[in-house]
Amino acid sequence: MSALTFQALRRLADGRFHSGEAMARSLGRSRATLSEALKRVPDLGIELFSVPGKGYRLAEPIEFLDLAAISKLLAAENARIRLEIVDEIDSTSTRLLERAAEGAPSGTCLAAEWQNSGRGRRGRNWVSMLGGSLTFSLLWRFERGAGHLGGLSLAVGAAVARALTECGVERVQVKWPNDVVADFRKLAGILVETSGEIQGPSVAVVGVGVNYRLGERALERIDQPVTDVAQCSPTVPSRSVLLARLLASLASALDEFERLGFAASRDAWRAMHAYQGRRVRVVPARDPAFDAEVVDVAADGTLVVSTDDGRTFNLSSAEISLRGK
Ligand code: BTN
Asked: ∠187-96-113 over CA atoms, to 5°?
């Protein structure tokens, strides 16, 4: 996507008609160049109308992230976060992992208006759309060793769920290992990638994708039950306020994790687990699927399940879903 596409979309963000001629003039480009730059807008998951005599109009207004407003909110709560917002990137996590290897400081955060190759867990894609998602990654450095980061992704899930709830999103729960759901539908996904020495120090790149207001085009490309912030909030919080709240909540959860590990958030996590006591289908990464009941989450973040024949397991990596779904 060209820089001109995003410049034009900022002009069109209010959802009103804008004359192509006036827009091209104010952007210092020809009408033909502008029209060419707007041809790829559908790739961003949004709809743009072009009406002869009236100009261009977006099907829905877009709220771009407001760096100044977010920084102000963050300064009040957490001065350690250094936020950078880019229009387009392949994956905020891929780029932040590179920066981590180059020595970027703890608290570096990269957010993107649009990811063209977002990565999910287990090698999946993460689908997002311009203005309809929040996609960011936060780099955090720990004194504790990489071998002592068990449960980190669960602590992150709890922090994301808490921030969404504080912003007025309703029915927010977590799903082991690190999904955030509402009504058993995915609201946010988390990808935690860690590296470092066994004895410490270590580093984590925490990637978070929140479904904010998913449009038809995005929904067509997602192959699991999903929901979004707009559907779960009587008053929809702004994307900028939501991002500031998420970052503040994550910073405090990551600090707490450094001191106390997952133990500190285990009770809160358990209370928010949508699948606690539920009968589920377990799909391990390699072994065959089986049915079980969710008993608990252990102090190391593994999920305790019991099978019908009375055996109890601690799962460290698997997918679970409600039985029969
Ligand atoms: C999941 O599969 O549930 C995890 C999804 C994580 C998506 C986020 S979006 C920001 C960051 N950048 C990525 O490429 N992935 C994570």
From this structure: 50
